């Protein structure tokens, strides 16, 4: 059975200021949901809150992944359970190669899933093992080939000196290697020119299938020209106010957000 990501009445604040005011959303594996909204509506707040960023305070609500509430889990445990976040602004980590980063991350996730054993030291302590190098090298080589990413990237420090498009392609490589149940793509189109956007979108489309559910966060229809969503939601002032099919994104492209603001404007007392 496909897994579900269920968000119920999620309320989130930052530094005491309410940002999300009751988000309700359900995503199944195999579904693509697009979340659109103007600046300041809470889109990135939702992505960070789902992944457990400590800056974002959960005031109320629940988030279930395959029936298990993840809100009490740290970020690494949420990743092990099958959540993945592609950042709007990927972090640079000097001194850590992409290959070493990915080997550690993939090993952690697969140990948690029981796909990689944990060894015991002579003193009886648990010793975390890494994915065998030969197996890892074979897998990353094939995945980079499939995504048309230059193999030289694996030897470079994570995101150091990478262009915006290269950073986003590396995020998609991480997505492919970690094999999550649900991916949150936080404005993956941000800062990309048309060619880079097409290349990144093609990489995402290669990964989309029955075992991956996706929440695609974006301002613009242009990304959705390449990644076809099943459902589109509009976030305004911390709440999802409209939901529909792909035609809703086309309406936003044609009319902008003014009609949404007017429709859901707070009544004057």
Strand-helix topology:
Elements: E1 4-14, E2 17-28, E3 32-36, H1 43-51, E4 56-65, E5 68-69, H2 75-81, E6 83-86, E7 93-97, H3 98-112, E8 119-120, E9 126-127, H4 133-146, E10 157-158, H5 164-178, E11 182-186, H6 194-207, E12 213-218, H7 221-224, E13 231-236, E14 239-244, H8 246-255, H9 258-263
Helix pairs in contact: 2-3, 5-6
Description:
With 269 residues, the protein is of the alpha/beta class. The chain has a single domain (4-94, 164-263), classed as P-loop containing nucleotide triphosphate hydrolases (Rossmann fold), CATH 3.40.50.300. Helix content is 35%, strand content 29%. The strands form 4 sheets. It has a 6-stranded mixed beta sheet with strand order 6-11-12-3-13-14, with helices on both faces. It has a 4-stranded antiparallel beta sheet with strand order 2-1-4-5. Strand 11, helix 6 and strand 12 (213-218) form a beta-alpha-beta unit. Helix 2 (75-81) crosses helix 3 and helix 5 (164-178) packs parallel to helix 6 (194-207). The longest helix has 15 residues, at 98-112.
The multimeric state of the shown protein is: single chain
CATH architecture descriptor text: 3-Layer(aba) Sandwich
| Name of the CATH superfamily | P-loop containing nucleotide triphosphate hydrolases
Distance between the termini: 49 Å
User: What are the secondary-structure elements, in order, as H or E?
Assistant: EEEHEEHEEHEEHEHEHEHEEHH
CATH topology: Rossmann fold
Strand adjacency order, main sheet: 6-11-12-3-13-14
Number of helices: 9
Share of β-strand residues: 25-35%
Radius of gyration: 19 Å
Give the overall silhouette.
globular
Largest sheet: 6 strands, mixed
Low-confidence stretches: none
């Amino acid at each position: 059975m496909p897994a579900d990501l269920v968000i119920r009445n999620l309320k989130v604040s930052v530094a005491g200021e309410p940002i999300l005011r009751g988000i309700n959303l359900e995503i199944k594996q195999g579904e693509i949901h697009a979340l659109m909204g103007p600046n300041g509506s809470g889109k990135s707040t939702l992505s960070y809150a789902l992944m457990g960023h400590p800056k974002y305070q959960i005031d109320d609500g629940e988030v279930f992944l395959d029936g298990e509430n993840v809100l009490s889990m740290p970020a690494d445990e949420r990743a092990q359970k099958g959540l993945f976040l592609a950042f709007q602004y990927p972090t640079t980590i000097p001194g850590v190669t992409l290959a070493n980063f990915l080997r550690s991350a993939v090993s952690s996730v697969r140990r948690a899933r029981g796909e990689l054993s944990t060894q015991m030291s002579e003193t009886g302590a648990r010793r975390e093992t890494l994915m065998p190098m030969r197996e890892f090298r074979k897998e990353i080589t094939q995945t980079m080939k499939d995504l048309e990413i230059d193999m030289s990237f694996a030897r470079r420090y994570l995101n150091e000196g990478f262009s915006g498009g290269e950073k986003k392609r590396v995020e998609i490589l991480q997505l492919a290697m970690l094999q999550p149940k649900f991916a949150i793509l936080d404005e993956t189109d941000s800062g990309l020119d048309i060619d880079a956007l097409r290349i990144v979108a093609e990489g995402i489309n290669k990964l989309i299938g029955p075992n991956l559910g996706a929440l695609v966060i974006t301002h613009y229809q242009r990304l959705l020209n390449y990644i076809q969503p099943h459902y589109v939601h509009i976030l305004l002032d911390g709440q999802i106010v409209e939901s529909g099919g792909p035609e809703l994104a086309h309406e936003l492209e044609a009319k902008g957000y003014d009609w949404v603001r007017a429709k859901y404007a707070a009544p004057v007392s």
